[in-house]
Task: inverse folding
């Protein structure tokens, strides 16, 4: 005789560290490449709004969409179901690996491999920022303040310290943890499934 046995699909999902790490590495490489592409294109952009929208669209929106797709892929490997806890652990590990890999790789690239790139981008940013502020009728003191801030950033280029790297990573990791909560909420999928059991 068979008896219905109900259990929560998703609660039985497993935390697959190996897969989360794998997709984290892939996402990190993608994030690094997207960031480098944005930097190279930013050297030649002549519109402040184009620069802002391109950076946000590629580095933020596109990254988030790819991360969401990877989160669904991880869930699919759990049979299409996982609870909120497993979702958070899986997506946060993926995002953590991605953040560390992309951040360190970018710092090495712009400070060691091609240190002139950041300076070129900042010089172009200063020029188009001045143009945008002048066109909007901003007072001279506002323009001077904004330019001074950008010039300070330029003056610190190439000055890598453990403190700088650590602070940058901590801020990024905090943001990614919040993002992992959002991904977990979006991909969470639990439902009752019926499993027949035989009674002797």
Result:
């Amino acid at each position: 005789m068979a008896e219905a046995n109900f259990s929560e699909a998703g609660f039985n999902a497993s935390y697959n560290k190996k897969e989360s790490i794998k997709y984290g590495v892939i996402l990190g490489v993608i994030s690094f490449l997207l960031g480098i592409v944005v930097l190279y294109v930013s050297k030649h952009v002549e519109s402040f709004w184009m620069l802002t929208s391109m950076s946000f669209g590629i580095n933020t929106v596109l990254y988030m969409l790819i991360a969401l797709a990877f989160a669904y892929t991880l869930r699919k490997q759990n049979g299409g179901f996982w609870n909120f806890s497993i979702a958070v652990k899986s997506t946060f590990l993926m995002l953590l690996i991605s953040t560390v890999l992309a951040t360190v790789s970018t710092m090495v690239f712009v400070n060691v491999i091609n240190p002139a790139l950041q300076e070129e981008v900042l010089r172009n940013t200063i020029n188009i920022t001045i143009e945008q502020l002048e066109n909007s009728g901003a007072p001279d003191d506002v323009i001077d303040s904004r330019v001074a801030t950008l010039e300070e950033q330029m003056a610190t280029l190439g000055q890598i310290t453990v403190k700088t790297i650590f602070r940058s990573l901590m801020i990024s990791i905090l943001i990614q943890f919040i993002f992992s909560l959002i991904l977990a909420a979006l991909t969470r999928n639990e439902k009752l499934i019926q499993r027949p059991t035989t009674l002797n």
